[in-house]
Design brief:
The complex is a heterodimer of chains A (about 400) and B (about 450).
Chain A: H1 2-13, H2 19-30, H3 46-74, H4 81-85, H5 87-90, H6 98-122, H7 127-138, H8 156-169, H9 173-182, H10 185-189, H11 191-213, H12 222-234, H13 249-261, H14 274-292, E1 301-302, E2 305-306, H15 309-335, H16 340-351, H17 372-386, H18 390-393, H19 398-402
Antiparallel strand pairs in A: 1-2
Helix pairs in contact in A: 1-2, 2-3, 2-17, 3-6, 3-7, 6-7, 6-8, 6-9, 7-8, 8-12, 11-12, 11-13, 12-13, 14-15, 15-16, 15-17, 16-17
Chain B: E1 2-6, H1 10-21, E2 25-30, H2 33-42, E3 46-49, H3 55-60, E4 68-71, H4 76-90, E5 94-98, H5 102-105, E6 120-122, H6 124-137, E7 143-147, E8 152-158, E9 183-189, E10 192-194, E11 207-213, H7 214-217, H8 220-224, E12 235-239, H9 243-254, E13 258-263, H10 266-275, E14 280-283, H11 289-294, E15 302-305, H12 310-323, E16 327-331, H13 335-338, H14 341-344, E17 348-350, H15 352-364, E18 370-374, E19 381-386, E20 407-414, E21 417-419, E22 432-437, H16 442-449
Parallel strand pairs in B: 1-2, 1-4, 2-3, 4-5, 5-6, 12-13, 12-15, 13-14, 15-16, 16-17
Antiparallel strand pairs in B: 7-8, 8-11, 9-10, 9-11, 18-19, 19-22, 20-21, 20-22
The chains are: A mainly alpha (about 400), B alpha/beta (about 450).
Chain lengths: ~400, ~450
C-alpha cells in the first residue's frame, strides 16, 4: 500500500508516465534501495526530488524500528539475535516499552540526519543537495539529485563525510543508543561491529591494491575511491564517486560479494547482514572443530553468549532462502534478454537494497531501459529483501491463510 | 577466648582441633547427629546439634560471649545468616564465613561493614585453584607457598635418585647453588618429618622443602630432580569442571595456555563452554582411557584432576602419567591420602580444605607478635616473629645459638632486606625472623624467643 501511495507523486506529476516506473521509483525509495529509472535527475522539480528523498528517510527509520522492535518479537530468520544485541535497550529498566524505545530511536535518527546535513553544508554543498545526500546516506538509501551521483562533486571532504555517515547508518542503532549511555566501548564490544568494520577495511585494501596494480586512474586517490565504493556497497547505500563498472574483474567481484553482506542488524542496511554472515562462519568453524574433538561441547557464541541451535538454524535457513530468491530472480531477469553480469548483479543489488549494480545497470547507468517484466522482478526483490523475505513469503504459505 | 565454629566438615573440624589444642574455648554447631557423635570421641570441645542459621541455637551456643564466629558449613546462605545473627544480636567482633558461590563474590558490598561486616571470606575452591596455579608456575615443584609478602617462596620438591644431591649432607648443598643460597627447612621421609641439620643426609625419594628468594624459586626443582627438559606448563588437561576446574581453566586460558577440560555433566559443560573462550570443553568421563587418548594425552605436559571424587582424582592422575603426561596434579582432601600420593606417583597433591584452614589461621593470626603458618598436612609450622632485645637469639651469630633440634631459622628480615641466614648471620633486636618448627617443638622455640604465645 505504502509503495503505491508513494508512487502517486511520480505518476501524477507526469515525471514518470509509466505506472511500472512510478512504482519502481517508489519501492526503490521506500526500501532505501536507491535504484532509479529517472534519466535526467538534475532537471526535475525540487518537489519531486524532495519527495524521493523523504521516502528514503521514512523507509530508513521504518526499517530500524521494524528490525529493532518488531522482528525480535517474531523471531524470524534467527533474529532473536537482535534481542541479545538489543539487550541494553530491551533489557534496560529505563526503557521497557516498544513505544518508548521507538521514540528514542527516532530521536537518534533525526539527530544524526541533522548533524550530517549541517556538516555537508559546511563542506560546501548547497542546502537542497545537502538535505538529499544527508538523508540518502543515513538511511543508506542512495538517491542523489545528480545524474552522476557523488562523482558530480568530486570533493574529497564530502566523500569522506558521506563514507562516515553511511557507516554510521549501517551500524546497529542499538549501539548508537548504547554509545549515548556507555561511550565508545559499546561499539568495540560488539563482535558484529568489529566484523563489519573488518570487512570494510579488508575489502578497501584489496581493491586499492588491485586498482594500483592494474594502473587505474580515478579521482586521484585510490584509497578514497576504493573506500567510498566499498562502504557504499557494503552499507547497501549505492552512491558512487567513480564508475566502478569499469574496474578490473577482481574488484568488481569483491563489490558483488559485498552486496550480499550488508551492515549491522538493527540498522538501515539491507542484504543478509554482517551478523548472520558472522554467525554462519562461526557455525562452520565449530563444525570443523567438532570433527577434531568429537566429544567437545562447542556452542556458537556471539558477544560471549551462547546462541541456541534454533537461532543458528534460523540464520542458516534465512541465508539459504536469500540465495534461493537471488538465483530465481536472476534467472527471471536473464529471461528478458539481460546479460549475465547485469542480471546477477541487479538481482543482488535489488534484493540487498543497494541500488546500482554492475554492467548495464552500473553506477553511471540506470534502470530505465529495462523490460517492464524485469522492473517488476526487481520491485518484488526490493520489497522481499527489505522485509527480511520471510514476512512476505509467509503470505504464500497456505497454512497462513487457514490460520 | 570463646570461638563458635559452625559446620563440622573437614575445615571446621581441623580448626576446632587446632584451637582447642591451644586451649581456646570452642563451641561447634553441627546439624548432623552422626558427625556430632563422632566428634564427641575425638574432640575436646562443646558440641551443639542444630542449624547454624537458627538464632535460638546460636544463643544456646553462647553467642553473647563469643569473640569470634567461623561459619564454614557447606551452604553459603547458612554461613551468611549465621554471621548476620552474630552481627545484629550480639556484635561478635570477628566473623569469618565460607562463601563459594561466585555470584556473591561479585557483589561484595553485602560483606561490608554496614551489612554483614565479615572480616574474612574463605572460598576453598578458589584457594585450591590459586595454589595449583602457583605450583604450575614452578616446574617440577610439588608445593609452592609465599612468605614475607611474596618476597620469599617455599618450594617443595621430590629428590630423584639420579640427582647429584642424593646422598649429600645438607651442609654440602651451598656448593651447588651458584646464585644466592637456599635453605632446606624440612624433609619428609615417608611419614617421618625431619628438620635438617648440617649433617642430615639427603636420600632419594625425600620430599624436600626449601626456602629461597622468589626470583630464584623456579630454578630450585632443577637441582633436585633432573628435569632439565621440563618447561613451564603449556598444554594442560583438566578433569572436572567444578568450581576448582573452572577457576583454573579461566585463569590458565587467560595466560595463553592451551586448555582441555573434561566434565561429565552435560549441563555443566554448556556452562563452561559459555564462560570459557579458548578452552576446549569436552563432555565425558575423565577415567575413560579411550577419551583421554582421543584427546592426545601423551602430548600434554600437565594433567590436573579436580573432580569431587578424590579416589578418582588419584586414579586418573596415575593413568595420565602412564599414558604419557609429564606432570600430574590431584585434588585430595583426606589427610591420610595426602601423605601417600607422592610415593605412588602423583606429582602434586592439593587439598582445598587444608589450604583454607591454613588461610583462616593465617588471617586470624595476622599482625600478631607470632604468626603461625601451617604447612602441608600440619607437619611443620612456620612462625613469623619480631626478635626482642631480651631474646637469646639476638646479638650472636646463628651458629652459636642453642637452637632446639626440631626447629630452623628460615629467614631474617632487616628493614626492607630479606636475608636467608647462614651460620655467620647475626640477628638484631627488631628483625623479623621466620622459624620453621615441628609442632611439638613450638614450646621450646617460644621459650627461646621469650614471647608468650599470645595469638590474638
Amino acid at each position: 500500500m505504502r509503495v503505491f501511495f508513494s508512487a502517486l507523486p511520480y505518476y501524477i506529476s507526469g515525471v514518470l508516465p509509466s505506472l511500472t516506473d512510478a512504482v519502481f521509483e517508489a519501492s526503490s525509495g521506500i526500501t532505501t534501495t536507491g535504484a532509479s529509472v529517472l534519466t535526467q535527475i538534475d532537471n526535475l522539480p525540487h518537489g519531486i526530488l524532495f519527495w524521493r528523498s523523504m521516502t528514503h528517510w521514512l523507509g530508513g527509520i521504518g526499517i530500524v524500528l521494524f528490525s529493532v522492535a518488531i522482528l525480535p518479537l517474531l523471531g524470524i530468520g534467527g533474529m532473536q539475535l537482535y534481542k541479545a544485541e538489543a539487550s541494553s535497550i530491551t533489557g534496560d529498566k529505563f526503557v521497557p516499552r516498544i513505544k518508548d524505545m521507538a521514540k528514542i530511536l527516532v530521536k537518534v535518527y533525526l539527530f544524526l540526519s541533522f548533524v550530517m546535513m549541517v556538516l555537508l553544508l559546511i563542506s560546501g554543498m548547497g542546502l537542497f543537495d545537502a538535505f538529499v545526500h544527508a538523508v540518502g546516506s543515513i538511511s543508506t538509501g542512495g538517491f542523489s539529485n545528480q545524474n552522476t551521483s557523488m562523482a558530480y562533486y568530486n570533493n574529497a571532504l564530502m566523500e569522506w563525510l558521506i563514507i562516515i555517515f553511511m557507516f554510521v547508518g549501517a551500524t546497529s542503532f542499538n549501539l548508537h543508543y548504547d554509545f549515548y549511555k556507555k561511550g565508545i566501548k559499546s561499539y568495540l564490544k560488539s563482535e558484529e561491529f568489529r566484523f563489519f568494520f573488518f570487512i570494510l577495511l579488508a575489502s578497501t585494501v584489496l581493491i586499492a591494491i588491485n586498482l594500483k596494480v592494474t594502473g587505474y586512474v580515478g579521482s586521484g586517490s585510490i584509497i578514497r575511491d576504493s573506500a567510498f565504493q566499498v562502504t557504499s556497497i557494503t552499507t547497501t547505500t549505492g552512491y558512487s564517486s567513480v564508475d566502478y563498472a569499469r574496474w578490473p574483474a577482481f574488484s568488481q567481484l569483491i563489490l558483488l560479494i559485498l552486496m550480499f553482506v550488508g551492515g549491522c542488524a538493527g540498522s538501515t542496511t539491507g542484504a543478509i547482514k554482517s551478523v548472520r554472515i558472522l554467525v554462519l562462519f562461526k557455525f562452520i568453524y565449530k563444525e570443523l572443530y567438532r570433527l577434531i574433538h568429537p566429544h567437545a561441547v562447542a556452542p556458537v557464541k556471539l558477544n560471549g553468549r551462547v546462541l541456541s541451535p534454533e537461532i543458528v538454524k534460523g540464520v542458516a535457513g534465512y541465508t539459504v532462502v536469500f540465495f534461493l530468491v537471488f538465483v530465481v530472480s536472476a534467472l527471471l531477469l536473464t529471461m528478458t534478454g539481460m546479460d549475465l553480469v547485469t542480471a546477477i548483479s541487479s538481482a543482488a543489488a535489488s534484493l540487498g537494497n543497494i541500488g546500482p549494480a554492475l554492467g548495464a545497470t552500473g553506477p553511471m547507468a540506470n534502470f530505465a531501459e529495462l523490460h517492464d517484466f524485469a522492473k517488476w522482478v526487481l520491485i518484488i526483490n526490493m520489497i522481499l529483501g527489505r522485509l527480511e523475505i520471510y514476512t512476505l513469503l509467509i503470505l504464500f504459505i497456505p497454512a497462513f491463510w487457514r490460520g | 577466648m570463646k570461638i563458635i565454629i559452625i559446620g563440622a566438615g573437614v575445615v571446621g573440624r581441623t580448626i576446632a582441633k587446632k584451637f582447642s589444642d591451644e586451649g581456646q574455648d570452642i563451641v561447634v554447631i553441627e546439624k548432623d547427629e552422626r558427625i556430632i557423635k563422632e566428634l564427641q570421641e575425638s574432640l575436646d570441645v562443646q558440641l551443639i546439634q542444630g542449624s547454624g542459621s537458627s538464632p535460638e541455637v546460636l544463643a544456646r551456643a553462647g553467642i553473647e560471649q563469643a569473640e569470634m564466629v567461623i561459619a564454614v558449613t557447606n551452604s553459603d546462605e547458612v554461613n551468611m545468616v549465621a554471621c548476620l545473627i552474630a552481627e545484629t544480636q550480639s556484635r561478635v567482633p570477628k566473623k569469618i564465613a565460607r562463601i563459594r558461590n561466585p555470584d556473591y563474590l561479585n557483589y561484595t558490598e553485602i560483606f561490608e561493614r554496614d551489612y554483614l561486616d565479615l572480616d574474612f571470606i574463605i572460598n576453598p575452591e578458589k584457594v585450591a585453584a590459586d595454589r595449583i596455579l602457583k605450583i604450575l608456575d614452578t616446574p617440577g615443584a610439588i608445593d609452592v607457598m609465599d612468605f614475607i609478602d611474596g618476597k620469599l617462596k617455599l618450594v617443595g620438591v621430590k629428590l630423584s635418585p639420579d640427582s647429584e644431591l642424593a646422598g649429600k649432607k645438607a651442609r654440602e648443598l651451598g656448593a651447588f647453588f651458584v646464585n644466592g643460597n637456599v635453605i632446606i627447612i624440612a624433609i619428609y621421609r615417608g611419614s617421618q618429618t625431619i628438620i635438617p641439620q648440617g649433617k642430615t643426609v639427603l636420600e632419594a625419594g625425600d620430599l624436600i622443602f626449601t626456602i629461597a628468594h622468589s626470583r630464584e624459586a623456579s630454578s630450585i626443582p632443577r637441582l633436585f630432580n633432573n628435569i632439565a627438559n621440563e618447561k613451564t606448563a603449556h598444554k594442560i588437561m583438566i578433569i572436572g569442571g567444578g568450581d576448582v576446574g573452572f577457576f583454573l581453566a579461566e585463569a590458565l586460558e587467560g595466560k595463553g595456555h592451551l586448555i582441555k577440560i573434561i566434565e561429565k555433566n552435560e549441563a555443566r559443560c554448556e556452562f563452561l563452554a559459555e564462560k570459557l573462550d579458548k578452552a576446549i570443553v569436552i563432555s565425558g568421563d575423565g577415567t575413560d582411557q579411550s577419551l583421554l587418548k582421543e584427546e592426545n594425552i601423551h602430548d600434554l605436559d600437565t594433567f590436573i584432576a579436580v573432580t569431587n571424587d578424590e579416589e578418582a582424582n588419584i586414579l586418573t592422575s596415575l593413568l595420565s602419567k602412564r599414558l604419557g603426561a609429564h606432570r600430574s596434579v590431584a585434588l585430595i582432601d583426606k589427610p591420610e591420602y595426602l601423605s601417600m600420593v607422592s610415593t605412588i606417583g602423583v606429582d602434586v597433591a592439593v587439598s582445598p580444605r587444608l589450604a583454607s584452614v591454613s588461610d583462616i589461621l593465617q588471617f586470624i593470626r595476622k599482625g600478631k607478635v607470632l604468626a603461625v603458618k601451617t604447612l602441608m598436612e600440619e607437619r611443620v609450622e612456620a612462625m613469623e616473629t619480631i626478635a626482642m632485645e631480651t631474646s637469646d637469639i639476638v646479638g650472636i651469630p646463628i651458629k652459636n645459638i642453642k637452637f632446639p633440634m626440631g626447629a630452623i631459622i628460615g629467614a631474617v628480615v632487616k628493614g626492607e632486606e630479606v636475608i636467608l641466614p647462614t651460620g655467620e648471620t647475626t640477628i638484631e633486636a627488631g628483625d623479623k625472623v621466620v622459624i620453621f618448627t615441628l609442632p611439638k617443638t613450638i614450646p621450646q622455640v617460644e621459650k627461646l624467643l621469650m614471647v608468650k604465645p599470645e595469638f590474638f
